[in-house]
Amino acid sequence: MGTVFKYGENVDTDVIIPARHLNTSEPKELAKHCMEDIDAGFVSKVKEGDIIVAGKNFGCGSSREHAPIAIKAAGISCVIAPTFARIFYRNAFNTGLPILECEEAARKIEAGNEVEVNFKTGEIKNITKNEAYQAEPFPEFITKIIENDGLVNYVKNNL
Amino acid sequence: MGMTMTQKILAAHAGLKKVKAGQFIEADLDIVLANDITGPVAIKEFKKMGAEKIFDVNKVVLVPDHFTPNKDIKAAEQCKMLREFAMDQEIENYFEVGQMGIEHALLPEKGIVVAGDAIIGADSHTCTYGALGAFATGIGSTDMAAGMARGKAWFKIPSAIKFELIGKPTKWVSGKDVILHIIGMIGVDGALYKSMEFMGAGLKNLSMDDRLTMANMAIEAGAKNGIFMVDEITENYMKEHKNKNKAFKKKIKVYKPDKDAEYEETYVVDLSKIRPTVAFPHLPENTKTIDEIGDIKIDQVVIGSCTNGRMEDMEVTAKILKGKKVAKNLRLIIFPGTQDIYLECVKKGYTEIFIKAGAVFSTPTCGPCLGGHMGILAAGERAVATTNRNFVGRMGHVDSEIYLASPAVAAASAIAGKIFNPERL
């Protein structure tokens, strides 16, 4: 279970982790600056297991894997949005940051709600509002990558 | 149902006769690319995968272009890691500072990418090479690492949107105005997960530089890739540039869409009706034509980048700046895409025009475009840039603003000190 941070549409990779911090790829270092250009208070408030819920096209912009790495290292357990930008979508799975596409959840969940996610079934429970939403299940191919705990191990097992 | 250009290239690289939208495939790769930001992460992942050698010394391309010449110690460490990996792996196409260029200007120029290729790059603007009739898409560092190790990547076959181009652009309208117009029309997620396929009778009125600019910004509409139908202009360009990299004999394969290819939508774009177009902060979809813009004073103008740092961009800039001065208290920063373009600017006398006008003429670097170095904005400052993104804080302070435009609009604005229509000069 985690507390929700809510953001709008088209959250881009430049606000998730500004390029001025890309001279490092250390997850802990990146996490210190996560979301700083859109929500300066994020880093001081976020707790392990918290959830980001946002509008459409989350993660648009650059291919920097530093974006999902920063979000994951900040303690976020899942990002929920109606749609994700495609490079971010790949990068999230490849680096082990769970993401779910669910329009209803993105619309109804509010900032500060307590939310629980079942990654196997795609069920999203809003404890605060006593509601449940169903996310799109992962495509089979993605499930394979998840089962291998990310692309690194998938490749290791298939080299 | 027939296949689109993108679907045909992906099918061929997966060893399949036929593919359809939504299908997952694993494709063989012709080029795997990274830079000094994404490369170091990919190298770490490559090692974690237990890989020792890259799949092909000719097909992995590394370009230190983002924070180069090294902007600080951390950047220097990242470039060092990239260089040592290139040496260790005997990578043929590693381009050191001094010979490098901005990756997406450099690869087509060197003949490293050609029609029919399947290309991944750990940089979102890898989609630029679609201008040559290749399938090219941006991916992250982990995909890059897997690509270096196995020469393969997984893809979901995309559906597509067709752009039927007709007519001829007017004098000051370039590929940049066309693509800004299209993004304004369909939005920053208008082509999400899809291909943007460009064809039609109007193609002959767009130069290779125009097309490279347009394909470059397909990602700003959320697209997986942008791709142009190959014609005489493309073939001439490839012939000329293929010879520049003789060590690397490439086969050109031209794929045309089937007559019954499935397109989810078709847009007819009349190039003759497009006006010089500017994208307002903070999204590339916030477009206005030059006629709808009032007085917007600016502090900086940036001309260059992987979007607009090619020879025609330098030419139009020189044409407008010749004998003129940049406005008082305004900074004009011009950065060409590659060393060859830089040299050509020197030979043609453009460098002198730029410097006499009061501009900075920089070595090729991605620096200012992503707020790295070489032209960062302070709080409250406004820039007109020929780059590709105007997100919050992209070029510096979170309270700065970026207006995206063509080199012609940018150069005219540098003289006027405000966003300005080149037709009125």
Q: Can you characterise this structure?
A:
The complex is a heterodimer of chains A (159) and B (425). With 159 residues, chain A is of the alpha/beta class. Chain A contains 8 helices and 7 strands. Chain A has a 7-stranded mixed sheet. The longest helix of chain A has 10 residues, at 86-95. Chain B has 2 domains: 5-243 and 262-269, Aconitase, domain 3 (2-Layer Sandwich); 276-424, Aconitase, domain 3, CATH 3.30.499.10. Helices cover 30% and strands 18% of the residues of chain B. In chain B, helix 6 packs parallel to helix 7 (208-216), helix 10 packs across helix 12 (350-357) and helix 10 runs parallel beside helix 13. The N and C termini of chain B lie far apart (51 Å). At the A-B interface, helix 4, helix 5 and helix 8 of A face helix 2, helix 3 and helix 5 of B.
How would you sum up this structure in a few lines?
The complex is a heterodimer of chains A (159) and B (425). With 159 residues, chain A is α/β, with parallel strands linked by helices.
Rg calc of chain A: 15 Å
| Global outline of chain B | globular
Given the C-alpha coordinates, what overall shape of chain A results?
globular
Tell me about the biggest sheet of chain A? Answer: 7 strands, mixed
How would you spell out the order of helices and strands of chain A?
A: EHHHEHEHEHEEEHH
How helix-rich are the residues of chain A, as a percent range?
Answer: 25-40%
Largest interface chains and counts: A-B, 43 and 52 residues
What value does the average pLDDT of chain B take?
Answer: 97
Strand order of the largest sheet of chain A: 4-3-2-1-5-6-7
Task: Please mark out the parts of chain B with pLDDT under 50 across 5 or more consecutive residues, or reply none.
Answer: none
